[in-house]
Amino acid sequence: MAHTFRGCSLAFIFIITWLLIKAKIDACKRGDVTVKPSHVILLGSTVNISCSLKPRQGCFHYSRRNKLILYKFDRSINFHHGHSLNSQVTGLPLGTTLFVCKLACINSDEIQICGAEIFVGVAPEQPQNLSCIQKGEQGTVACTWERGRDTHLYTEYTLQLSGPKNLTWQKQCKDTYCDYLDFGINLTPESPESNFTAKVTAVNSLGSSSSLPSTFTFLDIVRPLPPWDIRIKFQKASVSRCTLYWRDEGLVLLNRLRYRPSNSRLWNMVNVTKAKGRHDLLDLKPFTEYEFQISSKLHLYKGSWSDWSESLTAQTPEEEPTGMLDVWYMKRHIDYSRQQISLFWKNLSVSEARGKILHYQVTLQELTGGKAMTQNITGHTSWTTVIPRTGNWAVAVSAANSKGSSLPTRINIMNLCEAGLLAPRQVSANSEGMDNILVTWQSPRKDPSAVQQYVVEWRELHPGGDTQVPLNWLRSPPYNVSALISENIKSYICYEIRVCALSGDQGGCSSILGNSKHKAPLSGPHINAITEEKGSILISWNSIPVQEQMGCLLHYRIYWKERDSNSQPQLCEIPYRVSQNSHPINSLQPRVTYVLWMTALTAAGESSHGNEREFCLQGEDTAALGQAPDRLAHA
Q1: d(CA 63, CA 85)
Q2: Which of 99, 148, 288, 375 lies 20 to 30 Å from 123, alpha-carbon distance?
Q3: Which of 245, 173, 255, 467 is nearest to 342 (CA)?
Q4: CATH code of the domain in which 70 resides
Q5: In whole angstroms, what separates CA 553 from the centre of its chain?
Q6: Rounded to whole angstroms, how far apart are CA atoms 422 and 500?
Q7: In 2-151, at which residue ranges do the beta strands (DSSP E only) sit?
Q8: Fibronectin type-III domain: from which residue to which, for each copy (predicted)?
Q9: What integer pLDDT is reported at residue 8 of this predicted model?
Q10: 22 — phi, psi (to 5°)?
Q11: What would the pLDDT profile of 105-140 be if each residue is shown by its tens digit?
Q12: Does 633 map to a domain?
């Protein structure tokens, strides 16, 4: 079976060879094309191309009927009647140009006689920047160079390395675009100062050129492998006792370390000598994810650094929190003897928390008795309790992680608006771009120097004063009389803004409504009842849903006109107050049926009108609403 296969292979090769020879014979069986001085020429040179017919290969054996045509690729560039044609060609471009000679006879197609390829190029330039490297102590020597401009010809490169004791290594590359060769040999550190010389030579049909020799030692060209097996240890789970470990090749003398928080683009760099695979890091931050990389070098002054190692990512241990919470509060009277206290605080920054905050400890104390009344642990950033309205109360709040607690923030609970002379004056709130509100005020009438700080607080306005609505605040020094609020500000939402001036255990405050962006409300108030009282009526309505108010409401308007009348309606405009949901009208005539409706206005415009109600004022004899017509006219 093997002999049969071998015989078939030899027969196949013979057939292919015969076909190629026959194709060459068939292509030029009628004549020849010759090129002088050579098929390979220098750019800008002139070449002579001759085409001649073989005996008895012309048209009807009459030479005058033979028309020889010379084509450059598929374009005719010359012709001649006879048995031969000579043409001088100049200005050939770099690369390969194909010339074909054809015979044209009367009343017949052109016949191909023969062809030739001409290769135009340049001699190789001197190779530049020859450099050699051995990757790792067990690697092999490889060299790279810059070829210079393209020769457009087949070019062969020979790389030669000479060493001590007349040792010579040589490697060839027959790739025209060759700029890299690996000798496949390993230099050893037995004689680290021994000199080696490398040289590369480029050769083609038009000339040759050699690089300048590059001389180097073992220490010059051996680039260590990147360090591996990188790991980090924290002694006693402390960030202040951190050691980085790694493995290196045996001859490594110098290392450089770089590390950074994973969310940073800037590296911290450290150079260490004779580290032997370990180094202590003293400036890492707690509870921070870091990226570490290491590079190596064999000599302080010679050679090159290894590539950076693969990254090690590790998180440092937690430490006890260092910051103090920013705490604020709200008070609300429940009845004559009780009040509700709602405490709020902001998260510590990452650098202050130094770990994952597990919970918050809240301590409420009545100062007069000096006894801790309430202690609570919560995972939220707010806490609400009910306490007596009597007594002096203080609160302390601290944050805890796995290593300990922050210092407690202590504040005294006082009536923030009790001192009228401390109330800031001329408070205003104006839109300042998208989702920003600029709050400004004037110093209180009392000596401004008494003010220790201002607190600007804001929260979404909800009718009924819902204490569950999140509270936002910022603190401002006493010399500032403005604040730009942007945290949790949304367009088309009205905010209740309060500026508090604090002085010792006293406070004064002023409030205003504000929004960052507004437009006309989407709907008007819904009238839910009309009652008659001593010759006038009382209109009651439901508040417009918050999501339909589209900013801060400024006014309500109540419209009315006689039923079936074409006259313009009368109206009554009422300043908006959060808690108001009814208003009297005393200008209606008895025993006349009226149609009433309401609208709401923001600074951007008026809403569409709400539902319509019909009502007829019966006069003083009417005792109850049930005796008066009161119905919806429209849905």
Answers
A1: 12
A2: 99
A3: 467
A4: 2.60.40.10
A5: 40
A6: 8
A7: 31-36, 40-42, 47-53, 67-72, 75-81, 84-89, 95-104, 111-121, 128-135, 141-146
A8: 226-319, 423-520, 521-620
A9: 43
A10: -65, -40
A11: 877 788 899 999 999 999 999 999 999 999 999 999
A12: no
At 535 the pLDDT is 77
Q: pTM for the full model?
A: 0.68
CA 34 to chain CA centroid, nearest Å: 66
Query: pLDDT, tens digit, for every residue of 437-484?
Result: 999 999 998 778 889 999 999 999 886 655 567 899 999 999 999 999
What average pLDDT does this structure show over 191-208? 92
Cβ-proximal residues to 435 (8 Å cutoff; 6+ apart), any chain: 486, 489, 490, 491, 516, 517
State the pairing for strand pair 128-135/222-223.
Answer: parallel
pLDDT tens, position by position, 226-282? 999 999 999 888 888 899 999 999 899 999 999 999 999 999 999 999 999 999 998
Residue showing tokens 């027959």? 174
| Residue whose tokens read 């200008």 | 587
Residue ending a domain, among 485, 514, 543, is 514
| Reduced 3-state DSSP string for 233-287 | EEHHHCCCCEEEEEECCCCCCEEEEEEEECCCCCCEEEEEECCCCEEEECCCCCC
Q: Is residue 17 part of a domain?
A: no
- Domain assignment of residue 198, yes or no: yes
- Amino acid letter, residue 298: L
Name the burial class of residue 162, with classes exposed (0-12), middle (13-18) and buried (19+) by CB atoms within 10 angstroms of its CB: middle
Separation CA 256–CA 227 (nearest Å): 11
Structure tokens at 452: 């220790």
Residues 500, 559, single domain; the answer is no
Contact indicator for 607, 599 with CB cutoff of 8 Å: yes
Do residues 229 and 202 share a domain?
no
